[in-house]
Design goal:
Six copies of one chain form a homohexamer.
Chain A lengths: L4 E6 L3 E5 L11 E7 L1 H12 L3 E8 L2 H12 L7 E4 L8 E5 L8 E5 L21 E7 H6 L1 H16 L3 E5 L9 H11 L5 E3 L2 H6 L7 H11 L4 E11 L2 E10 L4 E4 L3 E5 L6 H15 L4 H15 L11 H11 L11
Parallel strand pairs in A: 1-4, 1-8, 2-6, 4-5, 8-9, 9-10, 10-11
Antiparallel strand pairs in A: 2-3, 6-7, 11-12, 12-13, 12-14
Amino acid sequence: MKKDFDLLSLGEILLRLSPPDNERIVRGETFQKQVGGAELNVVSGASLLGLRTGMISKLPDNALGVYAKNRVRFCGVSDDYLVYDEEPDARLGIYYYENGAYPRKPSVVYDRRHASFCKIRVEELPEEMFASTRCFHTSGITLALAENTRNTAVEMIKRFKESGAIISFDVNFRGNLWTGPEAKECIEKILPYVDIFFCSEDTARLTFLKDGDVKSIMKSFTEEYPISIVASTQRIVHSPKVHTFGSVIYNAKEDRYYEEEPYRDIEVVDRIGSGDAYISGALYGLLAHGFDCRKALEYGDATSSVKNTIPGDLPSCDLKEIDRIIRNHKGVGGQVEMDR
Amino acid sequence: MKKDFDLLSLGEILLRLSPPDNERIVRGETFQKQVGGAELNVVSGASLLGLRTGMISKLPDNALGVYAKNRVRFCGVSDDYLVYDEEPDARLGIYYYENGAYPRKPSVVYDRRHASFCKIRVEELPEEMFASTRCFHTSGITLALAENTRNTAVEMIKRFKESGAIISFDVNFRGNLWTGPEAKECIEKILPYVDIFFCSEDTARLTFLKDGDVKSIMKSFTEEYPISIVASTQRIVHSPKVHTFGSVIYNAKEDRYYEEEPYRDIEVVDRIGSGDAYISGALYGLLAHGFDCRKALEYGDATSSVKNTIPGDLPSCDLKEIDRIIRNHKGVGGQVEMDR
Amino acid sequence: MKKDFDLLSLGEILLRLSPPDNERIVRGETFQKQVGGAELNVVSGASLLGLRTGMISKLPDNALGVYAKNRVRFCGVSDDYLVYDEEPDARLGIYYYENGAYPRKPSVVYDRRHASFCKIRVEELPEEMFASTRCFHTSGITLALAENTRNTAVEMIKRFKESGAIISFDVNFRGNLWTGPEAKECIEKILPYVDIFFCSEDTARLTFLKDGDVKSIMKSFTEEYPISIVASTQRIVHSPKVHTFGSVIYNAKEDRYYEEEPYRDIEVVDRIGSGDAYISGALYGLLAHGFDCRKALEYGDATSSVKNTIPGDLPSCDLKEIDRIIRNHKGVGGQVEMDR
Amino acid sequence: MKKDFDLLSLGEILLRLSPPDNERIVRGETFQKQVGGAELNVVSGASLLGLRTGMISKLPDNALGVYAKNRVRFCGVSDDYLVYDEEPDARLGIYYYENGAYPRKPSVVYDRRHASFCKIRVEELPEEMFASTRCFHTSGITLALAENTRNTAVEMIKRFKESGAIISFDVNFRGNLWTGPEAKECIEKILPYVDIFFCSEDTARLTFLKDGDVKSIMKSFTEEYPISIVASTQRIVHSPKVHTFGSVIYNAKEDRYYEEEPYRDIEVVDRIGSGDAYISGALYGLLAHGFDCRKALEYGDATSSVKNTIPGDLPSCDLKEIDRIIRNHKGVGGQVEMDR
Amino acid sequence: MKKDFDLLSLGEILLRLSPPDNERIVRGETFQKQVGGAELNVVSGASLLGLRTGMISKLPDNALGVYAKNRVRFCGVSDDYLVYDEEPDARLGIYYYENGAYPRKPSVVYDRRHASFCKIRVEELPEEMFASTRCFHTSGITLALAENTRNTAVEMIKRFKESGAIISFDVNFRGNLWTGPEAKECIEKILPYVDIFFCSEDTARLTFLKDGDVKSIMKSFTEEYPISIVASTQRIVHSPKVHTFGSVIYNAKEDRYYEEEPYRDIEVVDRIGSGDAYISGALYGLLAHGFDCRKALEYGDATSSVKNTIPGDLPSCDLKEIDRIIRNHKGVGGQVEMDR
Amino acid sequence: MKKDFDLLSLGEILLRLSPPDNERIVRGETFQKQVGGAELNVVSGASLLGLRTGMISKLPDNALGVYAKNRVRFCGVSDDYLVYDEEPDARLGIYYYENGAYPRKPSVVYDRRHASFCKIRVEELPEEMFASTRCFHTSGITLALAENTRNTAVEMIKRFKESGAIISFDVNFRGNLWTGPEAKECIEKILPYVDIFFCSEDTARLTFLKDGDVKSIMKSFTEEYPISIVASTQRIVHSPKVHTFGSVIYNAKEDRYYEEEPYRDIEVVDRIGSGDAYISGALYGLLAHGFDCRKALEYGDATSSVKNTIPGDLPSCDLKEIDRIIRNHKGVGGQVEMDR
């Protein structure tokens, strides 16, 4: 029986404010105004590729909340499961982002405490939501933000799992939100529910205290928990404006690793959200192509690589463009300099 | 003996974010980035006119705090008494402002809770500060923001008074911060220390439950408290883009009212901060001209009227410009169309 | 039985390009990029007020079409019934708009010929669409654009009527698209199907060759055709930047005219789409308030007046704002200068 | 025998730098970059109306000079008689302009000393230039800038006169360049050569020490000198954003005054250059319509009025637009709200 | 006998709309507004280097046409042979351009069908035009746009040839306008008239079905047709932001090939028009230096390479700059970091 | 005894006007508006790092002078020793700057003659200034600008030296201001007073006619004059957008050279002022760390390298950022991709 959604995600929607080009937060007269947030980035990218997606979040009931909702819709993501905070202290969390240029690193200032999202509760969402989707995704950020979001996320993971949804989880460890041991303890409680697991090599080592090579680390998660697929991205930062990006995916059932040539010397315009874009591509590959990990790898790598060239958190490439990029990457057919 | 400062003021410094021109908060891709805040507006205007001023406030120890400090300095205001909040939850309060056009009113969304300023304590400032200024100014907003800012403000009023400073106070009642009775109770406790008192007719009636005409109301404050000077502004809002502005000042010692023709049909570009600009002009008139209320009136009215034509919270006219505007307003000398 | 939509509308979606502020088309280095179109303006305004709406249109299958679709979604309008033109000559119609300032009038240059919308056919839309809405709206522009759009529109009017939808029609006569006699002949053929009829006094006289006062003209339409409600807007253009706006609505069943004080001296920022905004408000009033013509009048007048203060074709005020404007217009409750 | 040009003009071309909108010179991060200058404004407006015009000036031989030349060409004005200054101290004169809003006046800061134009000499221009035009125009600004420009201008007036050109002269008195008596003495020396004389009532009184009403003043010039036509503009400045504009023209041969209803309540966007635009319209009327002073009046008033609505010094309306504005001003034909 | 023009060119002038920086067509709120078109790019570059050039084209008689004409003049190109389309369906062709960043390619969306240029006829131009120029240039785009432009172009080639002009032709094959065989058939008919022939190696192979190395291919054209000079550019696209550019020129009379070191690792800002800039430099070299192919090579390579660093289609470097770049490229004299 | 200032500097403050991004001076509609000047760049950078600094300069007494003063204050630099020019020819010097992209070099057009700064005299500054600082800095540009600034600078060097200040001098040779021999003769007269000497290898060779390797050249200055420290920067310009930067410092007393790995492949955003930033870092290192040349080297190299990534002349990095960059450069601690 067909579900209304392919993918629902729980996460905070943030106002992103960034000075234009190479300007700095401490100077200048304008901020570019965008929205972002790890989980929103994921569903918005997946939606562009063709999945029917929706965002579960809580926004302030003011002009900023309306702005965020409008942007969500602009991205082709459903706002059916956005709830609103009418209390006087309602607020939209903010982050300030500044581009880097070697030897100056990109930098971020967060102002996301006390945001309306931190108050979201399972009871605010309709019961039927849990049966409406094929896949539910959330990340370690949502777990780390506040005790309430942690409880809500854990409860939702259980409820979606019960309703038959696939559970996708991205560790996305942030040292400014919680410590490694806190993350480890919490995440290990939800790993029994997770089907698709995104975890970088560094995080696996530092947070989960794994050792060995990346492949054996990936496999070890599937041995300890009933995880079907583990994906791990590999980014080399040559400078703030030049990255190389690739990934490895492990399919536990097949006991097989999927890899390809990385995208080398990406001309980075805005790196934020490229990790989330990877997840959007990988989930698209899995959900739209019968859990084909080769597709997940190719869509993940391409969607992430090209996200680096797009200003803002959110991807903006549709399936046609991504398919063209994959074909070029694989060197299929004649190469043209320009798409006309 | 000469003091380092003519005017010190305690108040919150806010990041102001506003869509350009007639654009809306719920749409658009840029915010104009400015700083503002009632007390900062006052000292920045007074500084432009020639007073040596400084701001007492608390800023987050991050890029936003540095930005705010830089802007304070740009305005010619001393940052000697800015203190910094290094805690992880440090934040700069924000307000979002959108211009109006009849029949659409200007609108403001506040996001100032939990700001670093709310934590400011008297002990963070150096002891010598209290003897360093001729005049100390604060407003009802600082009283209303949080219990801690209220205590700090009341304590500072007492300490500055003891050190021989003139105390200036602007009621600036904001219904979204506290109720009328709360304001009345609190402010009546500080009125015994106040020398120069700014209170609009509406606030006098609604908050202090005064009746009678505006002049008798003004006088009544000086009868109940040892207040020397009471000033009351009078604004007529023809539309969001057209205002008329004037004021009345009462000098208790002289038992005399000062009035002049209002500025009619002001071409309003940005109304925010024009009430604070009035105070900056009036305090300049009093402090630079031996408490001459005629000067206070003329500088107050001119500084406020012209502030309406300047984008952002902060005044930007120096003494030469204000003197020219006063001369034009009084019709002194030939009128030219343009200043060349 | 509840329908999926309150309002569906058939019409062209145009790319609007306008120089910023008072700049001219013949000079300058940027265009502001927006979308517009009479029917889109109507549904987008109605959606902001709370109706569930959708747009029936045809877009080129290229980046411009994707842009237009994204904007439709941003406005809260469903893109379920947008179809795409994959032929090599697919194009999005364009209009260039330049603001006026007395004595310079606003001006428009159209480049909408050969647009993909002109090719839209009934068969491209799913059968179930006709039963999915409470109301269908289109305008004389759609009739005038091309023979094919005329046929499609007439066919859709009949099909929606058969399926029980209310038919709303706006004459919106444009002399650069067809002649008065052409319009009259065509529109008279569809009036037998129309329930809610929008026609200005000038158009009634010049196109339908009516005479008498505006009220008798309005009534005459309901006598000749089975029209339930006729609405006629009244705009006085004092200058390109100052308008006065009001309307009259006639309810045939009640044989009653509804009127109110016009909005006087509106501070016009962008006049385009304000007539369409009237329709969105009026339809909201009728559809959400049981065909209450008083509500239609108040929502229509307020939505149109405030649209004049918003850049671009599309309204951007939600129900809360419009209700506040109506209360202010009726002088209910204390008036504040600013919404905080 | 047909001449190459209808109108040549000698004058300085300035770089104009202005903060956007209502921003101030003392703040902000951008300047709008334009060119202007009294005589350039005249020929550029006349060129738009259809005269073949050219500019006689001297520019620095650097990127700023190239920029100025490109703008001159953009306006449809010939650059055949621009000469270049290759000396190391070559510079383009600059003026900074800031818009006003009541009670803040527009303001100008000049930085035009030592400009390359001040070095222009008759010998730099080709001999054939003097026979190539029907009319030569210059202004009191060129006379006042430097002794060398004064000598060059006087010499050119004589040489053009000898070659049969009509001489047009605009007093354009600027108190910051010379005194009234200096101006009087110098201009009286060239009036014997002048055919068309532009002088405002104020200047006639204050500089030429005339009295009586404006009409008798205008006539008196033609009695003292062999001047054919005298034009005098009349501007009422209601506020920096609202002006009323009209003029009177006196034809000595006919002994007749031409007047019409002024343009009332012009919505002023940028007032600079509107006096020069008047001259461009008046000269067009005279040169293209056989010295018809009615045409000169109508084209002058319309071109000037509409210039006030255009950003920058330079007019941008062609003959079609001006004809439409004149028709609307005279109330000929039905009035439409918008040019489509 | 001296001709009025060195170079006239027939081609379409397009409005170019591009999102700023790395923004995308499918998002964003502004377009940068420029003009471009292969032949305009050629004459505008040649004009900057010092040739007297003019454009033969047809523009709509509306504000967009005026804008295009103004830009043509701004570039120093004569508008004597621009004709205007007054029909109601007159339009300026458009193309939308988006920058790339690896792995995202630059992309173009065309909307040039039904443009006024497609209607241009030989009879609209004055007879004397054909004798007024030393050289006539057009490209395969003009041939491909429409049957009418093909006929007009072929007819003009013949007429200019008869009048003694040198004929320059750039194949500029565009697969979205016509097929290879169509191009081959058409172009082979005009090659008997061509003196200077621009054709890339790829096009020679794919369209003209040539084989062998690039030099033998170039020579073969001169063996089959009375072509004097063949030029072939060689571009290596390392990424959308890094190119290497060089060329080979073959002089049939001398039977000699001209080559130089390519410009390596060009920092590409806007690649569009750099091929056309090559032609402008090469034609300048040939026409201004007695058909010296060494000059053509050096000016062509330098003008093209530097065009890549200039936003928009049109070159903006004058002879002094190009000479400096050539000297630097050849390592002549000390190298400075900056031109002061 | 503690001095009021750590560092005072004498130099011109210029208005800098630059087209945005890769736009050119000869085109475009905006200039970015900044201030700069070699000595201001030095003190502003040093102030950000924590030194108490002030600028000695002369500004016009107009809006441009006020703008410059405000920017000086914004940078945390004292305006106590700014004096104002009230004469009618007062002006702020200007320079126009355009970015480069290979093969187009960055370019500068100066318009700084006759600036108010050229009139600055020692007597305009208060006597106590000379005893108020630990260090005085100026450059060869101030010596070269005009005879008067040369005399003033030499006089100030002597007066500061007498008052016990350390004298810092940067040769900063500019061939467009004076010749090598002029520079040599003048500078050799002040070298007897200099303690800290900044001179590049090229300048040492070309201007001072030194030979040998860079180290022996550096040492030779300390042998001929009582100079304590000589610093020499080494910049490799790979292209306008990629530089490598390092330096050598020689301490005469220790007879020791300090060097470190250069910063390679800096992603250059705006190269202007990076040499001055070096001096600000080096002086900070020396003055804040007891003349520790290792600190001077590290702070100099880091401050200069990162300045290249900041738009405008002026540095904007505080001590925390520079310390972080130095740690990263030395590879201390784990490397993160982003500062959060």
